[in-house]
Write a structure and sequence with these properties.
Layout lengths: L2 H23 L4 H24 L7 E6 L11 E5 L1 H24 L6 H20 L3 H19 L6 H32 L4 H6 L4 E2 L6 E2 L5 H18 L17 H11 L2 H8 L1 H4 L3 H23 L4 H21 L3 H20 L1 H8 L10 H5 L3 H24 L8 H23 L6 H28 L16 H26 L9 H13 L4 H28 L4 H6 L5
Antiparallel strand pairs: 1-2, 3-4
Helix pairs in contact: 1-2, 1-4, 2-3, 2-4, 3-4, 3-9, 3-14, 4-5, 5-6, 6-8, 8-10, 8-12, 9-14, 10-14, 12-13, 13-14, 14-19, 17-18, 17-19, 20-21
């Protein structure tokens, strides 16, 4: 075995060994548990750096673990692969895990079962590394299932509290539904290809699309199996990534300790985006599935961001922000821009972990600003309103400027409607940022506005420019789709864009009418905005619909069955059970 292959085998095993050692040797002391868990993650981090720097002989580092008994064709055994995508994701997971572990050790000091909590973080880290390095579909599924087990162990840390046990149960049930769909998809693909090895699967896909005809050129796979396999895989990923309408399990997990929320939103929830990129050559042959992913992602991005704006809880705001950003990632994948989704995933993971770990300081600072001046935007801006308007205009115009600059250079980022759709989401993100600036205008000075605008412009420019670098790094494994670079056609884009822009204009009109002290107001704006606020604050009433449309009928059915069982157990006749009348 090559030395690099040996270290690749140790990469996911060291965090797992550290977690097991923390359980066995800590003796209930959180300091010892922290030492063993951090040692395993830190050694794995150094291992990752070695694998990145080690000479690979012109190829990726690979290691075989055990024979593949499920494949019908002779081929490589089940193993791991350390390619550029795995290297990037491993570095992200280990970096976030080290920060979360250090934070958790201080956060959980004096808590009961803190050693188990730290060990569960180590387990989740190790299984995530198995997930990002797996090159077999069944190993990928098994690793994702074990990540779910570790997540539920973290969610039920306060198991004596009902607020912790019920969300953990809902998370388990919803994710098992997604896992079942995902398993059905990979079984379809593996059975059709005759192998569950990703290299063998990709080799069966041929060279691309038959644009002149109606089908796709594949060497040994059924097009029906490809479509249905990607459909089930995509549906399972949507469920586990909390996309609408499967998002109800994510907002109820906030009772878990803050480090759990930070780790979950930075490295676990967005695992679905990684799997989409890993299987991008397969999805490249299912353009209609990609269009469906785009529609669901776009809807989640808009609704999640809108729900985020009306939340009063800091952690609740971050939860719906994660929903919106994950929707944005799925929209990028649906357009075939897979490297952009990976870049977005990394930026979002680091950003969201920082926000969750710092959420306590926001609440602490709010105690010292209880008497901050509040009121309308016009009064809060005062004589600096021109500066605010200029800064907001610059933020909103940045996506358009960057897109036009690519067009003038003759290298458009995405031709046709694909670029226009990404431009639209860039505009929506900028307008959301401006809205948040106006909400907290009473806390910001003009200098802070200029600094924030400059930072946003720098980050947005680096984001747009960094996509080409990511495209080159991930070119061999996750390229921009050659089948669907333009996204849906103009006949689809125009109505959606007009309706959405109309919604934004009406919402802005209502907002200004409520915030300004003078001027004509939209008729019935207060009533409309109140209903809209309640709708968004309640998560689109999805919880209520499930409670009254599914939960209560099922509970009623269970109670009826229980009554029937009790009556039949006492010797009552079927007629008395059905009519409710006692026997004569």
């Amino acid at each position: 075995m090559h030395i690099a292959s040996f270290f690749l085998a140790l990469l996911p095993l060291m965090p797992l060994c550290g977690a097991v050692a923390a359980i066995v040797f800590s003796r209930g002391e959180d300091r010892r548990a922290f030492f063993w868990t951090r040692a395993g993650v830190l050694l794995s981090f150094l291992d990752c750096l070695f694998l990145v720097a080690a000479p690979k002989g012109g190829g990726d580092v690979r290691v075989f673990l055990f024979p593949d008994v499920f494949s019908r064709t002779p081929g490589p055994d089940v193993g791991l692969c350390f390619d550029p995508l795995a290297a990037i994701m491993s570095f992200l997971i280990l970096s976030v895990s080290l920060v979360i572990l250090t934070f958790s050790w201080r956060y959980m000091t004096g808590e009961p079962r803190a050693d188990r909590f730290l060990a569960a973080i180590g387990l989740a880290t190790g299984f995530l590394l198995f997930l990002v390095t797996a090159r077999n579909l069944l190993l990928l599924y098994a690793a994702w299932e074990m990540v779910l087990v570790a997540l539920c162990l973290l969610l039920i840390h306060h198991r004596q509290r009902r607020e912790s046990s019920q969300p953990a149960l809902r998370t388990w049930v919803m994710n098992q539904i997604g896992g079942g769909l995902f398993l059905a998809g990979i079984l379809l693909l593996g059975h059709s290809a005759g192998t569950y090895d990703m290299d063998g699967l990709f080799a069966q896909l041929g060279i691309g699309a038959d644009r002149a005809g109606v089908g796709f050129l594949t060497r040994g796979m059924s097009q029906t199996a490809i479509v249905w396999g990607t459909f089930f895989i995509g549906a399972g990923i949507l469920v586990r990534s909390a996309q609408i309408p499967f998002h109800l399990w994510l907002p109820v997990t906030l009772d878990a300790p803050t480090p759990v929320s930070g780790f979950m939103h930075a490295g676990i929830v967005n695992a679905g985006g990684f799997i989409l990129n890993r299987l991008s050559p397969v999805f490249d042959h299912s353009p209609y599935v990609l269009h469906g992913l785009f529609l669901v992602g776009a809807l989640t991005a808009i609704c999640g961001s809108a729900m985020m704006l009306v939340q009063v809880s800091v952690k609740q705001t971050l939860v719906y922000s994660t929903m919106g950003q994950m929707g944005y990632m799925f929209a990028e994948c649906g357009l075939g821009v897979f490297p952009a989704a990976i870049f977005h995933m990394i930026a979002h993971g680091i950003f969201k972990a920082t926000l969750f770990l710092g959420s306590g300081s926001i609440i602490h600072a709010a105690r010292f600003h209880e008497h901050s001046p509040k009121g309308s935007v016009a009064r809060a801006l005062g004589r600096h309103r021109i500066l605010w308007v200029l800064g907001g205009s610059l933020l909103v115009s940045l996506p358009l400027i960057l897109l036009l600059s690519d067009t003038f250079r003759g290298k458009p980022f995405l031709p046709g409607t694909g670029g226009m759709i990404l431009l639209f989401f860039g505009l929506a993100t900028a307008m959301q940022t401006v809205f948040n600036l106006f909400r907290f205008s009473h806390l910001l000075t003009p200098r802070a506005v200029l600094v924030f605008t400059g930072i946003f412009a720098l980050v947005f420019g680096l984001y747009w420019g960094g996509l080409s670098w990511f495209d080159r790094i991930l070119a061999p494994i996750s390229t921009t789709s050659t089948l669907t670079p333009e996204g849906p056609g103009w006949s689809f884009f125009y109505p959606v864009a007009l309706l959405t822009m109309g919604f934004i204009l009406v919402a802005g009109w209502i907002f200004l009418a409520r915030e300004t002290s003078s001027g004509w107001k939209f008729p019935g704006s207060s009533r409309i905005s109140d209903h809209l606020h309640d709708f968004l604050d309640q998560g689109g009433y999805a919880e209520m619909l499930i409670r009254h449309g599914l939960r209560e009928p099922l509970l009623s059915l269970c109670q009826t069955i229980r009554n029937i069982h009790e009556r039949t157990g006492t010797g009552s006749s079927p007629e008395s059970v059905l009519t409710g009348k006692p026997d004569v």
